[in-house]
Amino acid sequence: GDDVPEMVPEVSDDCSEWVLGFEDVEVELDCPSNRLITRTFTATDECGNAVQAIQEITILDEVAPTLEYVPAALVLDCGLEVPDNEAVATDACSELITWSLDSIVPGECPQEETIFRSHFAQDACGNQVSVIQIIEIVDEVAPVISGDALISIDCSEVDAPLVTTMDACGESSLTYTSTGIGEGIFAQNEVRIYTATDDCGNNSSSIQLVEY
Fold first, then answer.
1. pLDDT tens-digit profile of 114-164?
2. What is the DSSP annotation of the chain?
3. pLDDT by residue (tens digit) across 84-100?
4. Which candidate, 130, 131, 125, 129, places its Cα nearest to that of 1?
5. In angstroms, rounded to a whole number, what is the distance separating the alpha carbons of residues 164 and 196?
6. How many CB atoms lie within 10 A of CB 142?
7. Which of 36, 57, 64 is nearest to 125 (CA)?
8. For residue 76, what are the contacts with CB-CB under 8 A and spacing of at least 6?
9. Quick count: other Cβ atoms within 10 Å of Cβ 96?
10. CA distance 23 to 129
11. Among 59, 81, 99, 165, who pairs with 35 as Cys (CB 3.0-4.6 Å)?
C-alpha cells in the first residue's frame, strides 16, 4: 500500500556531463502482494561510458485485514432460525476471504445452548484477523395447552387427559389434578387443573370443567 520511493544514487564523472536512467523488473514472491522490484540504474557519460548499480526493493504484506462490521451478540428464543450474517472486512493490498466457525456449548436443558461463532478474514498473503460473536439460544416459553374449557364425556374417558399440549422447542409432559363436585347444578362433574411442563422447566396451567 505504500508508494515506492524514488531514491536516486549519487553520480560523478571527472570528464563530462552524464545522464542517469533506471529500469525496473518486478516479480511476485510467495503471495500476490509480496513483490521484489529489481531497479537497475545506468549512468552514461557523453562518450558513452556507462556504469550500473542495482537496488532491490521488497514489498511485503504483513498487515491483517480490518474488520469493518461484526455481527452483534444475540439472545434468541429456541425455535428461531440463527442468522448467518458474516463479518465484513477490507484489506489495503489484496483480495480476501471471510468465513465463520461455530463452537457449540450445551446449556442447562436440551433446548438451550451457547454458540461461540468465530468470524475470520484472511488476505491473499495469509494475514488473518478474527473475532468471536456469542449467540445464546434460550427456552423461556412455556408449552401451550389446547382444549375446551367445558366438555362433556362418557364414563369410559374419565381417566384420560381431555386437552393436548404443544411446545415450540421440544417435548412437554402433561399432568392434572381433579376435584369432584358433589352438589348443586354441577353435581357429579369435576374440575381439572392441567399443568404442562417442558424439558427446561417452563410450565403453564389450564382449568377445565368436565361433565359426565
1. 999 999 999 999 999 999 999 999 999 999 999 999 988 876 666 778 899
2. -PPPP--------SSS-EEEEEEEEEEE-SSTT-EEEEEEEEEEETTS-EEEEEEEEEE------EEEE-PPPEEEETTSPPP-PPPEEE-SSS-EEEEEEEEEEE-SSTT-EEEEEEEEEEETT--EEEEEEEEEEE-----EEES-SEEE--GGGTTS--SEEE-SSS-EEEEEEEEEE-SGGGTTEEEEEEEEEETTS-EEEEEEEEE-
3. 888 999 998 889 999 99
4. 125
5. 9
6. 20
7. 64
8. 82, 135, 136, 137, 138
9. 20
10. 37
11. 59
Cell numbers for 15: 570528464
Residue that has been written with the C-alpha cell 445464546 in this structure: 136
What residues contact 163, with CB distance under 8 A and at least 6 apart? 145, 146, 147, 174, 194, 206, 208
N residues, the chain:
212
Please give the model's pTM, rounded to 2 decimal places. Answer: 0.72
